[in-house]
Design brief:
CATH architecture of the domain at 55-86 and 95-283 and 332-354: 3-Layer(aba) Sandwich
Helix content: 25-40%
Structural class: alpha+beta
Strand order of the largest sheet: 7-6-5-8-9-11-10
Largest sheet: 7 strands, mixed
Oligomer: single chain
Shape: globular
Strand content: 15-25%
CATH topology of the domain at 55-86 and 95-283 and 332-354: Rossmann fold
Length: 537
């Protein structure tokens, strides 16, 4: 997406085009080796190639501006109304000055500068980074964009900075780290104001998607499962981690928007203070049971609300020792967040504001948010190709499967995290009834299926639901009918997670990781041989 230009002239200009014909103007000075990168209403100067800047995250930044703009507007109204109630008739009403924002890992300061220029009703933004070089770049960019009256650069450890503001709290805290955000969550939930918003990104998707469940437990306090629904599981693990951190301080979360896009997950949650509401976490958190054969999913909440006030222990387990569909055992994962991923009222308001915004990624934001607004409030989803692969049968059209669920009296939707997802409130046996009905019309090679296989047992089981494959008009969602940009287009050459910034921590005198790992096996052998050598006195 971006190109570096080596030339002998003083200043040159370069238009960079993406496949969608969007462009940014990049000017470069050969004498100073400076790039001028424009994004939104901000323009940043990049003098050091090691300062962390990721152009792939433009969608992330555009969406964050949309969310914070709406939050700032609503927060401004709320605080003014609250202040108006407190004043006496003889006092003069003083309008609130605006919200305060902490960009805890600001790097070049691009995000903070865009916030200052594009979000209304801002009182102050603290742009922080632990890297001295990043802060130098940040200061230059703040002056270059004339936002020094709103953006204050800070050279601190992000966790220490948040702990220092536990009394003087921020209205919004943005955490966009390279990898796992867990180390920042304890400080974040304490230093965000009551009703304030946390914006949290996690890019360690391999861990959250189940490739290393023990590492996920260490970082997030949850065991991740390998599943076709791994991207939603990642969202629910992150939300559970934030919720559990907040609960330690008598606080609870309200997810406004949770998205899984590209190579990361991003959640926007409000944080409130209430010991009573914290107790609801047990009923909003739970375990996932996944069959090792047919991959059917079941859930076990950790608490159950009583008909009157209070909670009771749930009846467990929610599954038998063997799966009722294929007689295989279960894997268990979690705890995860089982509550809603989004706030529909907030989402509806956000969709109305996005339509008038003019970002480079506006079409994609509108498409993704429209798809999210259509999602059912049901945990996890199945994928059509995997369901049919389990029974070794030809895959049916997704509209046919969706029609069958609707005709059977159940709801169905896509998940924004997967193109061929099936998110439904139908129980597992209905899903397999549909698969069996399709297999009767498009027979699989049953004679080649082992009797112990999930396919054999599922296909030879009895059906309990009358299935109709007649096309249902409601099967095709509005976002699909309108051909909205719902998913990532073909990746560009710079698509994907960027390399970790080399200036993120200033350790100039320490040996680099690359140097430490050179000949490490030989070094280990020498160390072991020296330990075995007898000591001479």
């Amino acid at each position: 997406m971006f190109a570096r230009l080596n030339c002998n002239i003083n200043v040159s200009s370069l238009f960079c085009f993406s496949r969608k014909k969007k462009f940014r103007l990049i000017t470069m000075s050969a004498s100073e080796n400076v790039e001028n990168i424009r994004e939104g209403e901000a323009e940043i100067l990049v003098r050091n190639k090691n300062v962390f800047y990721n152009p792939v995250q433009e969608f992330n930044r555009d969406l964050s501006i949309s969310v914070l703009s709406l939050f700032s507007k609503e927060r401004h109204k709320y605080l003014n109304a609250k202040e108006n109630k407190k004043i006496n008739s003889l006092e003069t009403f003083k309008e609130q000055e605006g919200i305060t924002i902490l960009d805890a890992l600001a790097a070049t300061g691009l995000r903070s500068i865009r916030y200052a220029k594009e979000i209304p009703d801002i009182k102050q933004i603290i742009a922080n980074d632990i890297s001295a070089k990043a802060v130098e770049s940040m200061k230059e960019n703040i002056l270059h964009n004339n936002v020094e009256q709103l953006v204050t650069p800070s050279h601190e450890d992000a966790t220490m900075l948040m702990y220092q503001h536990r009394k003087d709290r921020f209205d919004a805290i943005d955490l966009d780290p390279y990898g796992c955000p867990s180390v920042f969550l304890d400080g974040a939930v304490q230093s965000v104001s009551n009703g304030g918003i946390l914006l949290v990104t996690a890019t360690d998707m391999a861990v959250l998607a189940g490739n290393s469940p023990e590492t996920c437990f260490v970082k997030y306090g949850s065991v991740a499962l390998k599943s076709k629904a791994c991207h939603e599981i990642a969202l629910r693990i992150l939300l559970y981690s934030i919720s559990s951190h907040a609960a330690r301080y008598g606080r609870y979360i309200k997810p406004l928007l949770s998205i899984s896009v590209d190579f990361y997950v991003r959640v926007f949650v409000q944080v409130f203070t209430s010991q009573l509401k914290c107790k609801e976490n047990s009923s909003k958190s739970g375990m996932i049971f996944k069959c090792t054969g047919c991959e059917s999913l079941n859930f076990q909440p950790l608490g159950q609300p009583k008909a009157t006030n209070g909670f009771k222990l749930p009846i467990a387990p929610s599954v038998d020792q063997l799966c009722k569909h294929c007689q295989h055992r279960h894997q268990i994962g979690g705890p995860v967040w089982l509550g809603p991923l989004h706030d529909q009222e907030f989402l509806s308001q956000l969709l109305q504001t996005v339509e008038i915004k003019k970002f480079n990624t506006s079409k994609r934001i509108l498409g993704v948010l429209s798809m999210i607004s259509e999602e059912l409030d049901q945990p996890l989803y199945y994928t059509l190709d995997r369901l049919m692969s389990i029974v070794k049968c030809d895959t049916m059209p997704i509209m046919t499967f969706r029609s069958a669920l609707l005709n059977a009296g159940y709801q169905v939707s896509y998940s924004h995290a997967n193109k061929i997802s099936i998110k439904t409130n139908a129980p597992n046996y209905v899903i397999w009834d549909i698969v069996r009905a399709w297999e009767k019309e498009h027979p699989a090679k049953r004679d080649k299926l082992p009797e112990s296989s999930p396919a054999y047992r599922i296909l030879n089981d009895k059906s309990a639901t009358e299935i109709s494959f007649k096309t249902n008009s409601a099967a095709n969602p509005v976002s699909r009918l309108q051909h909205l940009t719902r998913f990532q287009s073909n990746p560009t050459e710079n698509w994907g997670p960027a390399v970790r910034s080399k200036t993120r921590i200033d350790m100039h005198n320490e040996e680099s990781k690359k140097e430490r790992n050179q000949n490490k096996k030989l070094k280990r052998q020498r160390l072991e041989s020296s330990e075995d050598r007898p000591v001479t006195i």
